[in-house]
């Protein structure tokens, strides 16, 4: 594989980690991203109050050793998720939320300083030798005798090896293949759950952490909705304050303004009128994001077919590898899975050249 061209599809965590690992190799690396930004499903919004709010993944845990080691290598600090004090839980409609004490000695979770986009920024900052193509959806992959032709909305590229980090469901529905992919792969890909595809995340920034002043953790849980989970989202330096959480996926058909109104009504019910004195409101409905959720009719359970053995095979005579967090053998569908899968693909590429 030495001195040959590798094209990586997708500039999310998995794609950029693979590019990072390959950066000092003798390969010519090109990363092609359909969006006009890096990060994929990692998305951090800096609000008007300069509070970083993670609208994609936010947390990591002690067992996420590969991700933690990468953060250490990149010199990205982490901080423990605040979970001290009382929380609210609403079990049924027309029943007010009930106050309860969060259990002590919970397994700690952590967040990255500056939000999860910190790792995307740091990875991309050291990829000066990597050719990054943004706002360039891939339309067709065609196998020729000695290479793969990658046709995008703007150009056509040739590669000796293509590594896709696109969610499998998107890959088989949004890109044409010549010749066709095996039916066995297409069937599994169509029935592979895509991380974040059903999620609606939101966050509100505040001038002060009024919930902490009341002895509250900021954690709220509801079986009713519109939000189902809410957490403190104070930043690393503890000088910018926010609450962030998840909405019910069924609200994806509503407009952003409709969802916002519902969230504010629920926040007032849980936390009082102070919750309405926010600086900014942010949300991300991933189901409406065309480069996250495939337009299919498959109803999938969380993590369904993640890490399936079909993703361990190479296709088009060893010229196509299907990667991404959904294909990881461990921690599939999480940031840890994205990093581990990038590392395993890197190890394969290196070993196949030795």
- String of helices and strands: EHEEEEHEEEEHEEEEEHEHEHEEEHEEEH
Broad shape: globular
- In whole angstroms, the N-to-C terminal distance is 9 Å
> Can you tell me the CATH class of the largest domain?
Alpha Beta
What is the fold-level CATH name, i.e. the topology of the largest domain?
A: FAD/NAD(P)-binding domain
Radius of gyration: 21 Å
Mean pLDDT: 94
- CATH superfamily caption of the largest domain: FAD/NAD(P)-binding domain
Helix content: 10-25%
- Which regions contain 5 or more consecutive residues with pLDDT less than 50? none
Strand content: 25-35%
Q: What is the SS-derived class? A: alpha/beta
- Counting H and I runs of at least 4 residues, what is the number of helices? 8
Largest sheet: 7 strands, mixed
By DSSP, the count of extended strands is 22
| Total domain count | 2
The CATH architecture category of the largest domain equals 3-Layer(bba) Sandwich
Question: Strands across the major sheet, in which order?
Answer: 8-7-17-18-19-16-20
Describe what this molecule looks like in 3D:
This protein has 354 residues and is α/β, with parallel strands linked by helices. The chain has two domains: 1-40 and 118-197 and 292-354, FAD/NAD(P)-binding domain, CATH 3.50.50.60; 43-115 and 198-291, Polyamine Oxidase, Chain A, domain 2, CATH 3.90.660.10. Helix content is 23%, strand content 27%. The protein contains eight helices and 22 strands. It has helices at 13-22, 65-73, 117-125, 168-174, 183-190, 210-213, 256-271, 335-353, and strands spanning 5-9, 28-32, 44-46, 52-54, 60-61, 78-80, 86-90, 98-101, 109-112, 131-133, 138-143, 148-152, 156-159, 161-164, 176-178, 200-206, 216-222, 227-232, 241-247, 280-285, 314-315, 320-322. It has a seven-stranded mixed β-sheet with strand order 8-7-17-18-19-16-20. Helix 1 runs parallel beside helix 3. It is globular, with a radius of gyration of 21 Å. The model has no long low-confidence stretch (mean pLDDT 94).
């Amino acid at each position: 594989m030495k001195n040959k061209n590798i094209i990586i599809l997708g500039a999310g965590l998995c794609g950029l980690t693979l590019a990072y690992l390959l950066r000092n190799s003798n390969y010519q690396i090109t990363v092609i991203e359909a969006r006009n930004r890096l990060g994929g499903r990692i998305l951090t919004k800096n609000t008007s109050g300069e509070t970083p709010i993670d609208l994609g993944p936010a947390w990591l845990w002690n067992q996420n050793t590969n991700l933690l080691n990468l953060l250490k290598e990149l010199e990205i600090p982490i901080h423990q998720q605040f979970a001290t004090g009382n929380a609210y839980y609403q079990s049924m409609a027309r029943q007010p939320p009930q106050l309860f004490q969060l259990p002590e000695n919970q397994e700690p979770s952590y967040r990255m300083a500056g939000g999860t986009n910190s790792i995307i920024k740091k990875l991309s900052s050291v990829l000066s030798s990597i050719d990054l193509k943004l706002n360039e959806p891939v339309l067709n992959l065609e196998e020729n005798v000695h290479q793969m032709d990658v046709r995008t909305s703007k150009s056509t590229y040739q590669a000796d090896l293509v590594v896709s980090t696109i969610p499998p469901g998107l890959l088989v529905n949004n890109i044409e293949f010549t010749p066709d992919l095996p039916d066995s792969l297409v069937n599994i890909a169509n029935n592979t759950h895509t991380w974040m595809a059903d999620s609606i995340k939101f966050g509100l920034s505040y001038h002060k952490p009024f919930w902490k002043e009341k002895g509250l953790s900021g954690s709220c849980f509801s079986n009713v909705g519109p939000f189902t989970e809410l957490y403190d989202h104070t930043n690393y330096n503890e000088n910018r304050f926010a609450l962030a959480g998840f909405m019910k996926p069924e609200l994806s058909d509503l407009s952003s303004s409709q969802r916002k109104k519902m969230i504010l009504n629920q926040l007032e019910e849980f936390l009082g009128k102070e919750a309405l004195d926010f600086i900014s409101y942010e949300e991300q409905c991933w189901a409406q994001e065309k480069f996250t959720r495939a337009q299919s009719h498959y109803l999938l359970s969380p993590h369904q077919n993640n890490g399936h053995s079909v993703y361990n095979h190479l296709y088009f005579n060893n010229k196509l590898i299907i990667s991404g967090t959904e294909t990881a053998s461990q921690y599939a569908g999480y940031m840890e899975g994205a990093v581990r899968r990038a590392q395993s693909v890197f190890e394969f590429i290196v070993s196949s050249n030795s």
